[in-house]
Each structure stands twice: as C-alpha cells, then as structure tokens.
Specification:
538 residues, alpha+beta, 7-stranded mixed beta sheet, 34% helix, 22% strand, globular, disordered N terminus
C-alpha cells in the first residue's frame, strides 16, 4: 500500500510525489482479449492495474462480402488516455512502454492518420488467397528457411495481412506512407516518431531475414520497402518523448519517455532471462494463454532441416538474440471446448477433473479431443478439430451447429460432453500432448527446467500431467505476476537508467514450486492413438 502521498500542481501538470516512490512506469499491455494499463515503481513492483475488453468492429470485405473483425483503435486510444490521465494524478510517471500481441500492424498516410482497417489476424481470406500469396512471395519451405518462420493459416504471418489489404482495400493502401507494427503504432501516437525494432519484425512476419538481419525478399515481392520505417531502434531504447498534444491530454510532463515497444511473448520472457542469468541455467518458458508459447533462448539460431514444415520458428529477444519458439492456441481451445460443454449441460459452471478421470481415459483409450480450432495454426496443422469417441468422429463445426439448434440428429452429441470430469480430463490430456510436442520442437532436453507461467498455472491437473509425462525434467510453476507487463516495464526501466537486464536481476524474484507427479501409466499408448487421429490417419 502506498502511504504519505501528497499532490501538487506543477506547470498545469498533475504530479504525485510519494515518500517511497521516486518514479513510476506505465505499461500499456494489449492482448487479444484484455487490454490493460499497469503501473510499476522504480523497483519493478506492480502498484496498480486496470483492465478492459474491446469487442471487434465488424466491416465487410468489399470483394466477398464476408464480415471482417477489426481492432477498435479509436476506442482503445480514448480508454488509454483516460486511464493514463487518472494514473498521472496518482503516480510520478516518467516512462511509458507498450507491448502487444503479434501479427498486427497499422497503415498510416503522410499526415500520420490511419488509412486502412487494422484487421484481426484470426481472419482467414481462404485457400485461394493463401495459394496466391506463396505463388508471389515464395514457397512455404523457402520462406521458412529464409525468415525462420512457418506457414500459419489466417493472417498470422503479418506479410499476409499486408497483401490482403493491398488486394481488398487497394485505395486505402495507395495512401499508405508507413506500415507500423502494433506496439510501434502506439509509440507513434504518443511521440510522433516511427521506428521498427527486432522483437516485432522477427515475430513470424515473413518480413525479416534473421540470418542477415535485413528485410527479407518478401518485402520487395510485396513492393513495400518504401513503406516500412527507416529507423531501427533497440527494444529497450527510447523512441522519443511525449508530444505536446499528448502530454496535455495525459496531464503528464512532455519529458516522459516512451520506449520502442515489444512483442508480448518476448516481454514475458525478459524477466526469466534476467532470473536465469543468476545461475546460467538452460530453460524453456512455457507461457500459457490464448496462445501457448514455448520459448528456448539461445546464443545462435540452430534451425534444423527437420524443423522445416513444422510450426517452429525463431523470435528475437529484447536483447536481439534468437529464441527458438513453438506455439499452439491452447487457451482458445479451452474456451472453445468449454463453451460446448456449458451449452450441452446448460450451465455456466467451469468443468473440473481429477487423476481418477485421467486414469479411466488412459485405461480405456476411446475418447480424444482434437486440435486445431484455427486450422493450420498449431503443432498439428492437418488436424481437424472435434471429438473422437468410441471410434466415431464428431467435427467441431457440426457439434456447434447441433448444440446451437439443440438438435440430436445428424452427427449426434458425444457422451463425453455431459461427463464433467472425463470431459475436462480429455481436454487436459490434449493440451499436455500439444505442450510436450511444442517443448520438444523448441529444443527441450532431459535435465532442462521448464517454467510454466500464465493462465494454465491455475489448472492443477494440466500441471500434474505435464510434470508426470516428463520424468527427465523439472517442471515448475512460477509466481511471476503479469510476466508480459513486467517484462515491458523492464524495457522502460532499462531505457530510463541505462542498465542492462542483468543489472535488473536483483529486482526479479521468481519463486517456483516443483509439481507433484501422478500415475500416468498408459499415457504413451494414449498419445500414440491421439497422434494418429491428429495427423489425419483415420
């Protein structure tokens, strides 16, 4: 709790001085679901936070008539300004730093105005678009070798989002003067300065050649080199200070610095890099949420031939070093399947399970919940989402339609959907199989520590299962609160003080608890059958 506060007015800017707080950092953390502003003190202690969800704005594809979800940029900006102004009256804010989800960008005209819709990367223009993209830009295999990026469906490769705007909204694209990554767009709104930085350009965009540290061939294939920022700025560097207009809106001094911005996965990794530096331990961070992201920091990029065609890639860390990464939409799968369960059982209750339910599934091996709810997005891109039960497959889309109409005809409804414990146990088994696959593709070896952070920390069964099926590894739950926001705050503190992430290590106290293992006899047999279904060998 903050005490001994006194408020004064200095040059019409509200300032708040605390006897125990010299300066504060404001983090704008933009996730796909929650948008938040988090306040940290100069010791990286979180002191305040506010959250808000923003629904997508729907527009029409002028060519197909399909509805396209786009981000509510003006609504977000209004909320950010209001909340930052409130915090400016309470805390001595000296720096603002922004972190956002990946695969998102904003097109600006010569006057710095948004001239194209900011589209959700989950929108899929269809197979013809995907085929045309690779015909223009290069094969999936060649692009993965050059950019260390796999082929994602939808618009999860940022270059695809750019090409889609070129085709579907050509008039607006002709007005585009600069294309900014999402964190850099918000930095531009605050400072009026445009730049790029490594964590976002190397984030499965297809735009960055990681071997040569230059723009990739895709940039020229799309004809956008003159529309990309000319200035490179380090992730932990200062982009600029507040414009006079923005300082007035926020009621903050114009001297407040703004960092270049950082991709959210790399923000969540930064505290662990500092923590691991104390012992030089090799580790993988299992960061869980809408996206489950397994990240293995390395000194040099080691991209193996066997990685080609797999959903494995390299990020660049906040200190511009390679991070071998594999991902899947674990949180989205949980939300999707739990909604099916709740609709079938006509309840708002979140399901739970236990080791006995897992035991029965491993013994019987007749129920399997399958990815990928966004086709082509995860570790099993050829898998069709749905439920196998007693040798019969129930496609996800058919289940949604049947449950929406309360129909019991057509494909029917699998019994597992009304069996609370067995249903959630089957879902956790699916998540664990996907996690193990992702960990191995990120470079997991025996003896390596696994740190799990994010939303899945609250899923006890998932964590017990994961620890139990990895007997050669220590799997730890961490107490890191808001790791993404904390990592983003670290970039601001580094920019303010000139310190390195290693210098900040004493401020990073990550406690972790080793997880108790449970009986998983039969898991490998269950996993083998699950894998057969996921790979399409029905």
């Amino acid at each position: 709790m903050l005490v001994n506060a006194r408020y004064v007015k200095v040059k019409n800017y509200a300032a708040c001085y605390y006897d125990d707080m010299k300066s504060a950092i404001a983090v704008i953390d933009i996730g796909m679901t929650n948008k938040k502003i988090v306040i940290y003190d100069e010791n990286l202690v979180q002191t305040d936070v506010v959250y808000k969800e923003f629904a997508p704005v729907m527009i029409h594809d002028p060519h197909t008539g399909s509805e396209i979800p786009v981000h509510d940029l003006s609504g977000m900006e209004t909320w950010f300004i209001g909340q930052l102004r409130n915090f400016a009256a309470q805390y001595p804010i000296r720096a603002i730093s922004v972190t956002t989800h990946g695969a998102t960008f904003v097109c600006l005209d010569r006057d710095g105005r948004v001239c194209e819709p900011c589209i959700f990367y989950t929108y899929d223009p269809g197979e013809r678009f995907q085929t045309d993209f690779y015909k223009l830009c290069g094969t999936r295999e060649d692009l993965q070798k050059q950019t260390f990026t796999p082929a994602f469906s939808s618009l999860i490769n940022m270059a695809k989002g750019i090409q889609f705007l070129q085709i579907a909204f050509a008039a607006g694209f002709k007005k585009t003067s600069v294309i900014l990554g999402f964190p850099q767009y918000w930095g531009f709104r605050l400072t009026g300065k445009a730049a790029y930085e490594p964590t976002y350009q190397a984030c499965h965009t297809y735009l960055w050649n990681q071997t040569d540290s230059t723009w990739s061939s895709v940039v020229d294939r799309l004809g956008i080199r003159d529309r990309l920022p000319e200035k490179f700025n380090p992730t932990c560097g200062i982009l600029g200070t507040l414009t006079a207009e923005m300082a007035g809106k926020l009621q903050l001094p114009p001297s407040v610095i703004v960092t270049t911005g950082i991709h959210d996965s790399n923000a969540s990794l930064l505290p662990y890099l500092a923590h691991a530096g104390k012992s030089s331990d090799d580790f993988i961070l299992n960061s869980t949420g809408t996206w489950c992201v397994c990240m293995h920091p390395q000194e040099q990029a080691e991209f193996k031939d066997d990685d080609i065609g797999k959903v494995v890639f390299f990020n660049r860390s906040a200190v511009n070093k390679p991070v071998k990464t594999s991902v899947f939409l674990g949180g989205m799968e949980v939300d999707t399947y739990v909604k099916l369960y709740q609709r079938e059982c006509e309840t708002d209750r979140f399901p739970a399970s236990d080791a006995d339910a897992v035991r029965s599934l491993l013994d019987e091996r007749n129920v399997f919940i399958m990815p990928e709810v966004v086709r082509g997005s995860g570790q099993f891109p050829d898998s069709e989402p749905g439920i196998f039960e007693d040798g019969r497959f129930y496609p996800l889309e058919t289940l949604r339609a049947d449950l929406k109409s309360r129909s019991r005809h057509g494909s029917g409804i699998p019994h597992i959907l009304s069996d609370r414990k067995r249903f959630f146990a089957a879902l956790d088994l699916s998540l664990v199989i996907q996690t193990v696959t992702a960990l191995r593709r990120a470079g997991m070896n025996n003896g390596m520590k696994i740190f799990t952070e994010g939303g899945f920390r609250r899923n006890r069964l998932y964590n017990s299962l994961l620890a139990s099926v990895l007997p050669g590894n220590e799997v730890h739950l961490t107490n890191m609160k808001e790791a993404t926001a904390a990592g983003c705050a670290m970039t601001a503190l580094m920019a303010l003080t000139g310190k390195t992430y290693a210098d900040l290590a004493p401020l990073i106290a990550i406690e972790h608890t080793q997880i108790q293992k449970i009986d998983v006899r039969g898991f490998e047999e269950y996993r083998s059958l699950w894998m057969t279904h996921a790979q399409g060998n029905l």
